[in-house]
Design goal:
8 strands; eight-stranded parallel sheet
């Protein structure tokens, strides 16, 4: 790993920029386009201890039948599940074009030895996972053991083979924006295809200042290396309004190339129904209940 030097973050400046971007208003046709795009960027997620094959099958059905009576809707990008549910999701989504993402590396804590983590990654890839969402060793990071964290990410990336690797920083445990920036730089240098805010199990999860900090790290990494790294905010994003605010932030910070599920995702469970509610409101002028649209 080449030496990583922390880029100091102006927290007040980040908050002010977030406030300016959040005040942007998108209307009519542009809003409908943004809603369709956000829907197509969702990793529809179930990561509960009570997950069952039946629940995962229902979620996969929902992913490919968001609202059958309203044609022209895009699919979500992926389904994100625990490792044991990968074969079920893979079979259920066959022929839909929707990816299967699996969390790995002792999610959500990351508290396992390296070989156990690599074995889990190999297992989910062999089971058909298209994407792997790993968690970094936050304890090691916070103790300044950056080389260990970097080496671990690089080895997980190698174990992924052709599967894309999303590296979860768990920003709620990193405490400062300076740490978020440092962890972002470290993960990208080590081979991450995406950097991701959170497991969704720690509060705060995705917040606008954290996402902006990570987007700026991606921008600087692309300027330095020519490589485009993806971004995935996860946890606490449940409304179409929030999703559109993040899309504005992406466009203003990284440009239109990142307005694609290939480079941006939302990790969410309830966001899809709120977006569907807003799409139908734009089309019909009437609100429906979120629960009207699809099976959870």
């Amino acid at each position: 790993m080449s030496p990583i030097f922390a880029t100091p973050i102006d927290q007040i400046g980040a908050q002010e920029r977030v406030s300016r971007l959040s005040s942007r208003s998108i209307k009519k046709e542009s809003k409908v386009q943004a809603l369709h795009l956000a829907l197509n960027m969702i990793d529809l997620t179930t990561l509960e201890g009570k997950d069952s094959p039946g629940k995962v099958k229902q979620l996969c059905y929902k992913a490919s039948h968001l609202h059958d009576s309203f044609p022209g809707l895009p699919n979500v990008a992926a389904i994100c599940v625990y490792p044991t549910m990968v074969p079920i999701a893979k079979k259920s989504l066959e022929g839909t074009g929707i990816n299967v993402a699996s969390v790995a590396t002792a999610f959500p804590s990351g508290m396992a030895d390296l070989q156990a983590k690599l074995d889990e990654v190999t297992s989910v890839v062999d089971a058909g996972a298209d994407e792997v969402d790993m968690v970094i060793s936050r304890g090691k990071f916070l103790r300044g053991e950056y080389q260990y964290v970097s080496d671990e990410i690089a080895k997980v990336k190698e174990a992924c083979g052709d599967a894309h690797l999303k590296v979860i920083l768990e920003t709620g445990e990193l405490v400062t924006l300076d740490n978020v920036r440092l962890a972002s730089d470290l993960a990208m240098d080590a081979g991450a295809d995406f950097i991701k805010t959170s497991t969704g199990k720690v509060s705060p999860a995705a917040t606008p200042p954290v996402v902006l900090t990570m987007l700026e790290a991606i921008r600087d990494f692309q300027a330095k290396t020519g490589k485009k790294i993806g971004m995935k905010p996860a946890g606490g994003i449940g409304t179409a309004k929030q999703a559109i605010q993040y899309l504005v932030m992406i466009k203003e910070t990284l440009g239109e190339d990142w307005l694609s599920p290939n480079l941006f995702r939302f990790g969410a469970s309830s966001l899809a129904n709120d977006i569907l509610m807003q799409i139908l409101k734009q089309s019909t002028g009437n609100y429906q209940s979120k629960d009207y649209f699809s099976i959870d």
